[in-house]
Amino acid sequence: MRFFAALMLTMLTCLPAVAQTENVALAGMLGSKVLLIVNGTAPKTVAAGESHQGVKVISTSGDQAVIEQSGKRLTLRVGQAPVSIGGNAAASGRGTRIVLTESSGGHFMTAGQINGRAVQFMVDTGATVVAMSVADAERAGVAYKTGQPVLMSTANGAIQAYRIRLNSVRVGDVEVFDVEAVVTPQPMPHILLGNSFLTRFQMKRDNQQMTLDKRY
Asked: Does the pLDDT value for residue 177 go beyond 90?
């Protein structure tokens, strides 16, 4: 929890609960098996012919897999943004509410998108902005070197980071545009979803559940 003290990060991870729409992403391949993410849950190893949370893996090939849910088949590719099965609001990103549920480890994690690319978030109510490593930025296709160079103090001394603006950040069926972020060369276990995203919402917490309602 003290991993990146220079950003004053107090980490909370968030998991969206989607009632009718399945948001499915392919996190990786393990031989003939896939690492499947459904509605932001932790990646699950699933073989062809097996199902996870109602999503069945039909076949795998290279970095792709054919999945089926409620009779509808789709082809997923590793690194592709999560695909929504059912529900027009989810497909368009025009949703207005995110419901987050605390995980068994006392944290909250969620799959999401940055500029349309699939990522994993750890939501941090103490972080000023969205924060990510250079490696995460490159995987998400973020042109961070065009941003403003800034110096940040860490336990290992000062490092150069980049302050940028992301075209869009999406969690579940809710998408926010023009979000401030910082990219640092220091490795980070997760992309941190800070207040440059969270302050766009009215936040309410009730025990292990947090609700974010989009502000207008």
From this structure: yes
